[in-house]
Amino acid sequence: MQNFSAIRAITLDLDDTLWPVWPAIARAEAVLLQWLGEHAPRTATMLGSTEAVRAIRMAVEREHPALRHDLSGLRRESIRRALRQAGDDPALAEPAFDHFFAQRQKVDLYDDALPALEFLAARWPVVALSNGNANVEQIGLGRFFHASLNVGSTGYAKPDVRMFQAAAQAAGVEVAQVLHVGDDALLDAVGALDAGMHAVWLNRQGVDWPAQGPAPHATVTDLHQLCALLQTAGH
Fold it and tell me: What DSSP string describes 130-164?
């Protein structure tokens, strides 16, 4: 990695970087179905399974591409559509979403997540930068983060360089002084590079670099390796 001495802040992806996201979403969808079974049984019967819940969400996303990166808005609209189709009260979409969202925050951290957060937060301001709707405060990780940005708070989604610029601004530094870490080659690594940041690709699966153009400054297989790399660089 080049110019590690210039790093003054860290931006960090959340889903599939600090925890696997799909188990959390699957549990949240199961809780949503259970809640609908109690409060909107016709909708629960119509949906029937978490696969059906996901299918209606995908249909709404296709019809409303503007919601593609607004995951909370997309989920609310999906629930509202299901309620309407089943003949239940669409106003139930809000409390239904609240139950889904609370469960979605119950994540299982990767083993390396907490040690890495402690290491990073002790040395730099850390800004969460996610296209998802995880809430670091509700998850119990808020103490590690200087700020947390997502589509709802910025109006942008990775790899839009404006989202990375907003994160640098939140940390109070220039984009060239930020190291971004995330699991998605395009959204995280390429997006950060395009914004002028340093980029580390977290490649837990050991796959080949899939994007065209410049590669990230470094690739690590876990967050322990990231911390070791930073220590080697004198941090």
Answer: -SS---HHHHT-GGG-SEEE-HHHHS--TT-HHHH
Identify the helix (H) or strand (E) that includes residue 214: none
Secondary structure of residue 92 in the 3-state scheme: helix
The per-residue pLDDT for range 119-148, each reduced to its tens digit, is: 999 999 999 999 999 999 999 999 999 999
Residue 18, pLDDT score: 98
Distance CA 131, CA 110 (A): 19
In the chain, the largest separation of any two C-alpha atoms, in whole Å, equals 62
Burial of 121-135, coded b for 16+ CB within 10 Å and e otherwise, reads beebbbbbbbbbbbb
Rg from Cα positions in the chain: 19
Q: Which candidate, 138, 181, 137, places its Cα nearest to that of 7?
A: 181
**Does position 59 have pLDDT exceeding 90, yes or no?**
no
For the chain, percent helix, then strand, then coil, each to nearest 5? Answer: 55, 10, 35
Instruction: Report which secondary-structure segment, H or E, holds 56.
Output: helix 50-63
Predicted confidence band of residue 1 (pLDDT cuts 50, 70, 90): very low
Length of the chain as a residue count: 235
Is the bond into 159 cis (omega within 30 degrees of 0)?
yes
**How many other β-carbons are positioned within 10 Å of the β-carbon of residue 153?**
12
Q: Rounded to whole angstroms, how far apart are CA atoms 104 and 22?
A: 10
pTM: 0.90
Identity of the amino acid at 77: E
